[in-house]
Design brief:
homodimer; 4-stranded antiparallel β-sheet; 9 helices; DNA-binding
Chain lengths: 255, 255
Amino acid sequence: MHSSSVHSLPANEKERCAFLSSLPLFRGLSQDTLAYFSEHAREEVLPKGKILFLQGDPVNYFYVVMDGWIKLFRETLEGDEAVIDVLTTHHFFGEMAVFDGKRYSWSAQAVDLSRVVSWPAAILEEQALLHNRLAINILRSMADYREQRDREIEHLKVQTAPQRIGCFLLRLVSEHWDKNTVPTIHLPYDKSLLALRLGLKSETFSRALNVLKKETGITIRGAAVSIPNIDKLSHYCCGACSNEFPCQDLKQSNA
Amino acid sequence: MHSSSVHSLPANEKERCAFLSSLPLFRGLSQDTLAYFSEHAREEVLPKGKILFLQGDPVNYFYVVMDGWIKLFRETLEGDEAVIDVLTTHHFFGEMAVFDGKRYSWSAQAVDLSRVVSWPAAILEEQALLHNRLAINILRSMADYREQRDREIEHLKVQTAPQRIGCFLLRLVSEHWDKNTVPTIHLPYDKSLLALRLGLKSETFSRALNVLKKETGITIRGAAVSIPNIDKLSHYCCGACSNEFPCQDLKQSNA
DNA sequence: CGAGGGTTTGAAGTGCATCAAATAGTGTGG
DNA sequence: CCACACTATTTGATGCACTTCAAACCCTCG
């Protein structure tokens, strides 16, 4: 797996402050408020596999991912694991900390060497009550995230396995897109995790990927995927999806 | 279908104000603010099947359901319909109105004779900026809702059709539970819609219900479902779900 | 080189969808 | 209150998608 740019040492105050101010979450806040958050931040470097908390634990902290990948998942009594999402830089979780006494509804684990910042739930709540702008920022981010989740639910309901994979690839493309280069992307984490993320078994994932290759002409070498014909891929995947052609995410990144 | 208590005429100012103040969304707001919302509210009675807006329309209004059932759904190019959720009294939608210029990511339709209140997006945004308490309330409701959605995603990934149905029934039970009576509930809307809501075809739904009868001893007459043995039902459904036994929703209602 | 995890492949099974048709249920006008 | 029309629901037969279990392959890293 390609390494992300995780420093093994926590950032210093200035670095952290710069990172925080780059987040939509903290946009428009006063320097004082930012400094306050930075002071009270707990920064952690997480080794691969590190569990942050388990489903059912009381919500004590609110987290923002700085680097790496954090997996949110639920485990059933029968031992199946449902991966709810896999988050990376700039994503946050635990925002239900604005309730008191609630519990995490999933477990969180570092997929790879990762880095997160966190704050005690009380601080987030206190500051959100104090600074309307912060509350609004959280709200916007959550509304944004909700759209993604709704899309995800649609995908689970109406797309086939190969289509879900293709749709995921298209979303990756849209993030890094440079129109002048051949669209080539790297799968951000293990195929087996990706499979779970998409609600599939890894065997099914593997087979579905083969189907996708045949149908859309993409090629795969390890984690590297190249997409010679984006339109073909979009057409194959998005017909079973309500997003107009090409994909909504793609459109956003073009705008 | 059993009729909900929809009045055919809009409520008067006082009624509406009482309804609004009962919403968690408006909890703790000043009388003035409530009155302001009430004044600017547009109340609509929606005939069965009425489309409120279509996916892709610009977000002009923020809605709260007063009575009835509102279906949020997406349609694929191939004509499949994915029902994202079916909302009822006290639920709200269109809260992405706090962004400007965004578009609805699904369509909304009245399933039955329903009644909704709505406000121009600008009013919601303006008031959320003005009254921190409102922003916090929206935020809390959204965090709450997110938990439901995450659960839903898990269900789609790991539960079988009969288990999903059983889980849905358990949630209904928990809403109306009176420990002293035999747990009997009414399906809130058409079985065919319920099927879509759970990501199934109606034929599959019907068959899955038969399986559930055999496995858990429930009986069904039309829309009436009685559950002689809740534990058996929970056990059958929740083994494939990460919520502890009995179901989290059930626990909440007991607390 | 060899151990161990991640990934792919094969054969067989299960669950859900599809298509087609029967049945139950609901609302209508007579 | 009944008969008809129409819709919702159920049932049957069959097919496809995804899973399961098992084994091979591959890749990395000590």
